[in-house]
Design a protein that fits this description.
The complex is a heterodimer of chains A (278) and B (241). By secondary structure, chain A is mainly alpha-helical. Chain A has 14 helices and no strands. In chain B, α4 crosses α5. Chain B has a 6-stranded mixed sheet with strand order 5-6-7-3-8-9, with helices on both faces. Classes of the chains: A mainly alpha (278), B alpha/beta (241). Chains A and B meet through α9 and α10 of A and loops of B.
Chain lengths: 278, 241
């Protein structure tokens, strides 16, 4: 097998592979910068919890409309935002810390979502929701992924400075802006939106992988914010491409292969980062 | 300079508080305090650990809502207050350079979206020079020592160009040289006409440099001339030390 056959043929020969690549690349563009800010805000648990939290909403959409992307996405979006706000609300009461609230809500959400899917669907449907189907992206799904990336990047640019201030010195942002809730909520909405986009391709359990693993990898390579976002996007794009190739040549499920590729890039970066710090 | 204490005849307060109760949850650390400060005053906030010094400062700057009562700033908006937090409030491992962090102090001029511009960059360079951080301008903040971080927070404070400065433990855990430099800078800012309110632990420093004191102890807030309030005979030692 020539290098060209190994690296390009799957995408030249098969439309579903090209669509998967386009979808994954769109997802990478939105998810990776979001992941960098989640990491810097020390909210990695939040990303994971919200990824699980969209499951019951997506499942409710599935129950009502079958495997309809708009219905499942809308349900996921509502469920994700509800859990994000509820966890924040519970932490403000002082009864539970926010991370505990998130853990509680996402476990309830995950259990509830699986139960909902089981009411109507079988094991195959459940696997589709949990692990996605990046090799079966239709036009609606592709447009959703591209639309979310198109919305995410300018919105992130718009709230970039408040977001930096919120990570660095949240009290200072409150003084400078007279309140930081709107920026926090905009950011949370972007997290949920990207997770909802991601769940169609990678499933609810894997969607957060394309946010956090490239961001963690980028943190190992650079200590400045701009390059960190650029490296995270690069790693996410490379993971999508490499994961799809791995999936094709080794006949493995595509979603986990993409996340595995991102994880491998992170693990390979660890010794390099250790050497650079000496 | 201060033209007397609030409550003296003819003295108009810059900030006043009435029936002020502060705390977290339902537990008050300060109950039903009355008082105020005049423009141009130089005031130390002292008291034992946990008495509510930082709580009072946060309430004054607007970061904490009173449990009861009210705080009124007269002729000044809360957004015109300059704020220097404790270092622990900042995430210093955030990937940002010294010059970038200092430049955030220009938010009153740039807004949250505007560009810094040539004038802004000159102001940042001047502020960094004033605190002795010019050589470290492009360095990541994570690499700074505690003293350098405090100098950087002072640079950000300078760039706010605020008429009223509230500082939470500005000289805590600093070496003597850094503390002396920053104290001199603070005194200069006061001579230029700024009102200064600072939480401090070092009573000798308070006695020697701060004419007014707010003493927080036993859920009460006492206000008066430092010489009177912190006189050895009058000082409730077990409460303050």
């Amino acid at each position: 097998m020539t290098p060209a056959e190994l690296l390009w043929d799957p995408f030249f020969s098969f439309g579903f592979m090209r669509r998967a690549l386009a979808g994954t690349l769109a997802l990478a563009l939105g998810c990776a910068p979001i992941g960098v800010f989640l990491l810097l805000k020390r909210m990695t648990l939040m990303g994971d919890a919200l990824a699980h939290a969209i499951l019951p909403g997506a499942a409710a959409g599935f129950l009502l409309a079958g495997l309809s992307l708009p219905a499942m996405s809308l349900g996921g979006l509502l469920a994700g935002l509800t859990v994000a706000l509820a966890a924040g609300g519970i932490s403000r009461t002082g009864l539970l810390r926010e991370e505990t609230g998130l853990t509680v809500f996402y476990l309830i959400s995950l259990a509830g979502g699986v139960l909902l899917v089981s009411l109507r669907g079988g094991g195959v449907d459940l696997l589709h929701v949990l692990f996605g189907s990046v090799l079966a992206l239709d036009d609606t799904a592709l447009l959703t992924l591209a639309g979310v990336a198109t919305l995410t990047l300018p919105l992130l640019a718009l709230i970039f400075r408040p977001l930096v201030l919120e990570c660095l010195d949240p009290d200072y942002l409150r003084l400078a802006s007279g309140g930081h809730a709107r920026y926090h909520l905009t950011f949370l909405a972007l997290v949920v939106l990207n997770l909802v986009a991601g769940f169609q391709a990678l499933g609810t359990l894997m969607a957060v992988g394309l946010m956090m693993l490239p961001a963690a990898c980028a943190r190992l390579w650079t200590r400045t914010l701009g390059p960190m976002i650029a490296v995270a996007i690069g790693v996410a794009l490379l993971s999508g491409y490499a994961g799809l190739l791995l999936s094709y040549h080794a006949a493995l499920p595509a979603g986990p292969a993409i996340i595995f590729a991102a994880g491998a890039l992170l693990l390979l970066s660890l010794p390099v980062a250790a050497l650079r710090r000496r | 300079m201060a033209g007397g204490l609030v409550g003296d005849p003819g003295v108009t307060p810059l900030v006043s508080w009435e029936r002020l109760t502060l705390g977290y949850g339902t537990t008050p650390v300060l109950k039903a305090a009355h008082g105020g400060l005049v423009a141009g005053s130089l005031t130390a906030v002292v008291g034992p650990n946990g008495a509510g010094k930082s709580t009072l400062l946060k309430a004054l700057v607007g970061l904490l809502r009173p449990l009861a009562g009210r705080i009124d700033w007269h002729g000044i908006r809360r957004q015109q207050l300059g704020w220097l937090p404790q270092q622990a409030a900042l995430q210093f491992d955030f990937p940002i350079t010294v010059a970038e962090l200092a430049s955030l102090g220009r938010w009153r001029r740039t807004g949250l979206w505007g560009a810094l511009g040539g004038c802004g960059q000159q102001a940042v360079a001047a502020a960094l020079a004033q605190v002795g951080l010019t050589a470290l301008a492009q360095q990541e903040v994570v690499t700074l020592s505690g003293g350098q971080r405090q100098r950087l927070l002072f640079a950000r404070l300078l760039l706010e160009e605020a008429p009223v400065l509230l500082l939470d433990e500005p000289f805590a855990a600093l070496d003597s040289s850094t503390a002396a430099d920053l104290l001199a800078l603070l005194m200069q800012l006061h001579r230029e006409g700024r009102t200064i309110i600072a939480v401090l632990h070092d009573l000798e420093l308070v006695r020697s440099h701060f004419p007014e004191t707010l003493l927080v102890a036993d859920r009460q807030l006492l206000h008066g001339p430092t010489a009177q309030l912190l006189a050895p005979a009058a000082l409730p030692m077990r409460a303050v030390q």
